[in-house]
Q: What sequence folds into this?
């Protein structure tokens, strides 16, 4: 059978392009892009809103930030909790890394009746705190030498309260601080989501420390954090 030369060339070009295209991230990946956009909205609310007067002060010297736009409690008083967010690190003044996806969970997070966990921003103040999260599955209250302070909406003097803490957590739900304990909760890189958003081989370290991956959908949140 005689093949048309254009058909052969077209097929050859497609075969060459296929592996390259397969390795590229889905730039219009709606699910992961929606989470990045939600993290931007949470950052704007907590870092730039009137309810958290000290959050922006903490950002001026921060090494990183973990943003959780929704952390959902499963039980009535005790129960499973979980959520997803992004971790970003400061590469240099006014230059932040692309976001790496992280999951947060707990087998038992204690809340008083009526309490609700929702948007949270963890400001990572030290290199030690950032590396503890990057190096392995991070468990609050179990990391030697890493301290965390949680403050509620409208709490004046959070900068003083934080003292020498490595990580300071801000949440928009005052009920969170009526009886919640973050101890026992954990955060871990979601490298399946990282690969879907950036491409094959995208891990949290490759995104934050090695700066090997980019995605134009994350530019708005990087530009917002560049204010600090």
A:
């Amino acid at each position: 059978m005689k093949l048309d030369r254009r058909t052969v060339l077209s097929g050859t070009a497609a075969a060459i392009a296929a592996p390259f295209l397969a390795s590229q991230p889905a730039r219009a990946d709606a699910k992961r892009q929606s989470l990045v956009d939600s993290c931007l909205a949470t950052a704007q609310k907590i870092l730039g809103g009137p309810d958290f007067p000290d959050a922006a002060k903490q950002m001026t010297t921060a090494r990183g930030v973990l943003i959780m736009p929704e952390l959902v409690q499963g039980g009535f008083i005790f129960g499973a909790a979980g959520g997803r967010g992004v971790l970003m690190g400061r590469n240099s003044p006014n230059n932040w890394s692309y976001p790496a996806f992280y999951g947060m969970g707990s087998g038992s997070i204690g809340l008083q009746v009526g309490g609700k966990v929702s948007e949270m921003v963890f400001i990572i103040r030290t290199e030690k705190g950032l590396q503890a999260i990057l190096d392995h599955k991070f468990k609050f209250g179990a990391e030697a030498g890493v301290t965390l302070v949680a403050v509620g909406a409208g709490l004046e003097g959070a900068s003083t309260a934080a003292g020498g803490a490595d990580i300071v957590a801000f949440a928009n739900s005052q009920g969170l601080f009526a009886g919640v304990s973050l101890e026992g909760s954990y955060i871990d890189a979601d490298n399946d989501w990282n690969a879907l958003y950036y491409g094959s081989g995208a891990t949290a370290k490759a995104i934050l420390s090695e700066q090997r991956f980019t995605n134009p959908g994350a530019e708005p949140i990087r530009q917002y954090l560049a204010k600090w």
Q: What stands out?
A: Residues 27-225 form one domain. The chain has one domain: 27-225.
